[in-house]
Amino acid sequence: MPSTPSPPFGNARATDTGADAEAAAQSGRGGSALDCLLAVLKTPALAADLALRTALWTEIKRLADIHRFLGLLAYSSSSWLPPSERQWRDRVLMIHHRRHVQRLAALRRLIDAFNNEGMACVSLKGPLLAERFYALPFLRPSNDLDLLIHERDAAAAVQLMTRLGFQPDGRYPWHLQRRLVQHLTFVAPGDSPRVEVHYQLYGGNGYLDASGFVDRSVAWRSAAGFDSRVMSTADEAFYSCVHAGNHAFHRLRWLYDVITIARTLTPEERSRVRGLAIGLGQSGLFVAAGMAGQEFFGEAPELGCADFPVPWLLTRLTPRQVRRMVERVAGTASGLSEKLGYRLDFCRMAGSPLRAAGTIAFGLDLELRKRWYELRNPVDPSELVRSLAD
Fold first, then answer.
1. Total count of domains within the chain
2. Are 318 and 359 found together in one domain?
């Protein structure tokens, strides 16, 4: 471990929001725990004071875990932590490193198996995204593993995963499954992570065909010694932004992925991202990502979408509303008003009243189809496998 880790957000352009958060962390007056977390990630020396404030530091670590920055917090603040926090630091870093190695080993097994069957398979997000865009990949955690395939290979994928010892976790027959869910979920054996095999991508107000993304994928040689297909850089930037927005930025790590990937884009790739955002109807999410990036990191991702119109529904989407989306992640979205607010967030990001209506209709259609089927049919985990085999 280097004696003086470099600040992870050192390339971000400071804004008034970021400066205020850092000043609040330095002075101890005002500023939320989330602001303090982002401030110490940008200026790790702040940890020398913050780590001595037990209640605040405990909350900072909790939020770092929620937003997938816990390993980065432990690493970047290492040189400034008091002795009482060094055991925590070492434990966090060891866990992150061990899990990263395990994820790579599990992914290698999956990729090799799909390749041996002659099925096109793309590693989606996860440890290979960390390898491609971060100097220390193990600091970007991955809970499950995501693969992307052609929809036509869904039945073969289920058969293969079953032979590998994975149990499909699906209760609907295939004709309904493909309308309701964009991926096949597999429960892992032993210590293996859960696996999601995507045959579509979720796009807020509908599903996006996976075939183009699979066909445009590129080769990547992992540091773990195996070859895989990964999304092209432009597709990775596009999907990372859509994925973060679809989750209302409830994990700021996903938003920071967008910023980090965007820094690597060529003008041609940036133009490609812009075309995808317009052509696939995701412009509202890109505007929201720009607001959120500026609000939390002082840097809007440079995706060629800065001139997109600001989405609105009843009220225009504002930085304050984007911040409220993220604040709901702390586990407060349990009341009716919070749940309604969560749904309204997606309507605001949709891009226009017409697209907002489409988002509502799409969500209602999914829920009604699920409830109608579940009322008329007993839960049968084997139904998906049986219907794919027919």
1. 3
2. yes
